[in-house]
Amino acid sequence: MIRAARRICCLATFFIVSVAVSASAQPDDRLRVLLLQSFSSDLPYSENFLRGLTGVLDVAGRPYDLYIENLDAARFSGDSQRAISTRYLSGRYADAPVDIVIANARPAGNLLAGAPELLPDARRIFVNGPMSEARDQVPHDSLLLSANFAFDRALSEVMRLSNPRELHVVIGGTSPAAATRLDRFRDAVAGLDVEIPVIYLTDFTLEEILDHVARLPRDAAVYELGVFRDAAGRQLVPLEVTERIAEASNAPVFTYWIAEGSGTVGGLVLSAEALGEETARALLTGPEEGIIDDAGLSFVYDWQALRRWGFTEEELPARATLLNREPGLLEEYTAEAVATLAVLIVLLAMTIALAATILARRRKERELRESEARLTAVIEQLAEGLVIFDTSGRATHWNPAALAMHGFAVGDAAPSAEQMDRLFEISDVETGEPLPAEERVVQRILRGETVHNVERRVRRTDQGWEKMFAFSGSVVHGTGGETLIVIVIADVTERRESDERQRLLMREVDHRAKNALAVVQAVVKLTRADTMPAFREAVEGRVSALGRSHSILAENCWNAVDFSTILRAELAPYAGNVAAHRVSLEGPAVTILPDAVQTVTMILHELATNAVKYGCLSQEQGSLSVRWRLEGAGGLRVFWEERGGPTVSAPEGNGFGTRMISALVGQIDGDIGYDWRAEGLCVSLGIARGITKGKTGEDDVAVAPRRARTTNGGSRPLRVLVVEDEPLIAEQIVSDLASAGHIPIGPARSLDDGLRRARSESTLDGAFLDMNLAGEVSTPIAHILRERGVPFALATGYTDAARAKDGVAVLEKPFSSEEMLDMLETLVSVDAATE
Q: Which of 175, 192, 187, 262 is nearest to 222 (CA)?
């Protein structure tokens, strides 16, 4: 079939050439080339040379006309045949505008060199095989591409790649060309000083050659120099001989040429395609005369042969060409599809021609059985359920997945309609109302509907489970004319439950967000202060306490939180560099349930704020002791004792903080008592609800008071870059920096703006970067700042990200002015220490 296709291509080429020759004159820049092929068009050498030639010409883009004449010298040779071919070409191209004539291989070269009157105005290019006398064949005003084969380099590649213990050289024929190849190969062996045995098979019949190579050890190698005639005097086809030697050999076979699929390994070979490419380049760019040596030599290997003998692609030289590579998946299936189509066409033709003979019937029956078997296998392996009904509504087949989804064992008989009605209740997935018979999927399909993803609630009464299934189905007409109803069933229970959980989660998030906003609103409305800075500080502290409580809950996945963790978090903002023994925490492991975490946090915040402003932590010699113990049935008693602060006396009235504590205590069914001792306030806090016993004990904790800060106080103002996409937060940072005597740069509200400022500002002492800028991360800005040596902190509301990573400071939202300025002071001091 392939040979016939090639002949059709040749006829088409001949037709195109005929049209081109008879056409009117072409534009002056069009290149007209006559190619004289020595051999037939279907010979691999001729095909590969033409592919290489046209490939380079097509890529070059210059318009060209290519006329091809195949001399078929293997069948038609001799002086008389050359004379006939010369007269034919002279007559055919007498008036044709040919610019260049290419004589490919020696027979065509002999014809062209011996007929100077043939197209005398055309430039001549001779492409010869590996024959030393080719130089004498070519006129001086022409170009010769001399493919003198480099046996020394080829033999070196064989020795490098296969490292054989012995080399067997196969050659046949007594022609001068064969003798020349053998002499040159012997010279190469001598020149390389090969140290392994070299055995020459020069006077063998083809059968003896095949038998010899079949008995070789695998660590040997075979080099085939071309067998045109064997010892029996038989004229042979070299390509067929090469293929038979490669197939029979027990050792890898190398040769000085290669054809795709011949079975030889390859190496440094004479590549007809490479020779065609080099001819095209010489045709386009010159030189116009002279000799180009070693033309067409390249490293080419057969992929299948490499695999057969265990060679890998990594062992090959750079820029080596691989032929006969195993086709990819798409190519493989394409070939099968074409083959299958061809078989079907042949079968159809046989069926029509032979009037459905017994052979055709048996073949068709077998194919039908195989098709049914494949279809059954697919149906049985489906993850979705598949049920087939007849037109009466009776189920005729259930696949294993459908049986399992409905609570039947694999292998059980298909349940009857009566059994289904008795065991299952079908209802609407949203309302749960039972569906009437006419609304069931089978009945709807019987009425002519096509059902797609109709969801139903299915309950099995005897097993007590309930699932949600999605049904899709339609009427299908079988090959025998029967009408079937095919329904595919998907279990969507998990997806529906996931959707419901997500809906509940969104409601819970909405509830918590609104609740948090309501609490913040209440804090803002109820907070009282004598000055605006004091008011802002109080509000910021309480909102920060709310934020810390949410962060602690998020870190614990909204599970119970250890009491000491809450206490540490509330005292941490006031930590400094004074003696660690001033604050002590002592008590058993106790956890607070999620519903009570916010309440307990706010109570501890109010007590800590009071201690820092007015109590023991407002003076250097003051100390704080917090002890707690379990009491009663699941209760907790906390003792807050202050010492060494200013003299304490009971207040005349209750401020907002005291009133808020009282209200919060009520939420946890607790109680609180204040002992206003002169040496310090003592508080007894009882918590009766939201307490569970912890798993491990806690060590004593020391927390020192925060150092007081003033404004910039005479040092130079710091230039601080602010990158924040939330306008209110950006305004707060800018305002706080300006109030502290610093110079805010920005705010930059996008990634591009932040990058521009980070690059362009000549002086930057620090920076605050929002991690998320309208969906884009600020990492590129951080890279620029790090390269410039500018200290920075990432501001984020993501709890899991609010940790220092890779030396980067993180400021967790919401944060107070004090926390932000503390962070700036830390950044600058660390940067100065590093320098």
A: 262
DSSP letter assigned to residue 14:
H
Distance of alpha carbon 485 from alpha carbon 392, whole angstroms: 10
What does the angle CA 191 – CA 196 – CA 199 come to, to the nearest 5 degrees?
90
- Angle, helices 206-214 vs 238-248, to 10°: value is 30
- Give helix then strand counts, H and E, for the chain: 25, 34
Instruction: Decide the pairing of beta strands 221-227 and 483-491.
Output: unpaired
Q: What is the phi-psi region of residue 514: left when phi exceeds 0, alpha when psi lies from -120 to 50, beta otherwise?
A: alpha
> Residue 829: which pLDDT band, with cuts at 50, 70 and 90?
confident
- Please report which confidence band the pLDDT of residue 621 belongs to, taking 50, 70 and 90 as the band edges: confident
Cβ contact 537:554 at 8 Å: no
Best mean pLDDT range from 514-518, 535-539, 802-806:
535-539
Task: State which amino acid sits at residue 587.
Answer: G
Which of 124, 116, 80, 78 lies closest to 98 in space, CA to CA? 124
| Alpha-carbon gap, residue 274 to 49, rounded angstroms | 7
- Phi first, then psi, for residue 649 (nearest 5°) are -140, 155
Q: Which two tokens stand for residue 790?
A: 């500018």
584/62 Cα distance (integer angstroms): 91
Whether 473 contacts 492, CB under 8 Å: no
Q: What is the pTM of this model?
A: 0.37
Q: Of 505, 504, 548, 542, which is closest to residue 522 (Cα–Cα)?
A: 542
As a whole number, the mean pLDDT across the chain is 80
Share of the chain above pLDDT 70, in %: 83
Percent of the chain whose pLDDT exceeds 90: 20
Task: State how far Cα 803 lies from the chain centre.
Answer: 31
What is the identity of the amino acid at 39? F
Which pair of tokens denotes residue 383? 């993850």
DSSP 576: -
Hey, what amino acid is at 160? R
Per the CB < 8 A criterion, the answer to whether 196 and 142 are in contact is no
pLDDT digits over 699-735, tens only?
444 443 444 444 444 467 999 999 998 877 888 888 8
DSSP string, 20-52: HHHSPPPPTT-EEEEEEESS-TTSHHHHHHHHH
Q: Which two tokens stand for residue 415?
A: 């349940």
Q: How far apart are CA 247 and CA 628, in angstroms?
A: 91
Q: How many C-alpha atoms does 111 have within 13 Å on its Cβ side?
A: 34
pLDDT in tens, 131-142: 445 555 566 678
Distance CA 309, CA 254 (A): 12
- The whole-angstrom separation of Cα 822 and Cα 577 is 13
**For residue 441, what are the CA distances in angstroms to 389, 449, 490, 508?**
11, 9, 14, 37
CA dist 687 and 668 (Å) reads 6
Task: Please choose, from the candidates 219, 304, 299, the residue with its C-alpha nearest in 3D space to the C-alpha of residue 262.
Answer: 304
Nearest-CA neighbor of 624 among 568, 581, 661, 573?
581
DSSP string, 147-165: ----HHHHHHHHHHHH--S
